[in-house]
Amino acid sequence: MTRPADSLIIFIARLALAILFLWGGAMKLLSYAGFVGYLHNKGVPYAAYAAPLAAAIELIGGLALVLGVRTRAVAFLLAVYAVVTAVLGHDFWNMTQASLQQDAVVHFWKNIAIAGGFLLLTVTGAGRASVDALRAPRSSGLLG
């Protein structure tokens, strides 16, 4: 059971993480051809299939975070996604131009930090301000 203040902080964390993914997913759809081209340039296999999958993960995952739906599972999926995108999208070890490499290093570690936030949500759950909390069985009686 979480205290009301804890639930508020968890809700704010869910919103902060969700905004990033909702915005990212929307931008991927709005510049879809460019995103597919980016994936091709990065050597992502099956870029034509990976692009809609990435946009869907970000949009559906972001919405699930806002609402607090299946938060533990969604957060774990998004943690894995953040690590995969760090490795595929910010491969600083393959870059030779110093300024590009420095930028990629920052983005790589930001993705890893975001994954850490998702892993915390995997452990804490959504808190009281969520669909998950509404669906949880309520204890009643003297022993509950």
- The unreliable regions are none
The secondary-structure class comes to: mainly alpha
Give the domain tally.
Answer: 1
SSE succession? HHHHHH
Shape: elongated
Radius of gyration: 18 Å
Amount of beta strand? under 5%
| Whole-number mean pLDDT | 91
How helix-rich are the residues, as a percent range?
A: over 70%
Explain the overall architecture.
With 144 residues, this protein is mainly α. It has one domain. The chain is 76% helix and 0% strand. It has six helices and no strands. The protein has helices at 4-30, 32-41, 47-67, 71-89, 98-124, 131-135. Helix 1 (4-30) packs across helix 5 (98-124). It is elongated, with a radius of gyration of 18 Å.
Short characterization:
With 144 residues, this protein is mostly helical.
Relevant terms:
membrane, mainly alpha, elongated
What's the structural blueprint in terms of helices and strands?
Elements: H1 4-30, H2 32-41, H3 47-67, H4 71-89, H5 98-124, H6 131-135
Helix pairs in contact: 1-3, 1-5, 2-3, 3-4, 4-5
Family: Belongs to the DoxX family.
Keywords: Cell membrane, Membrane, Transmembrane, Transmembrane helix
Transmembrane segments: 7-26, 46-67, 74-92, 112-131
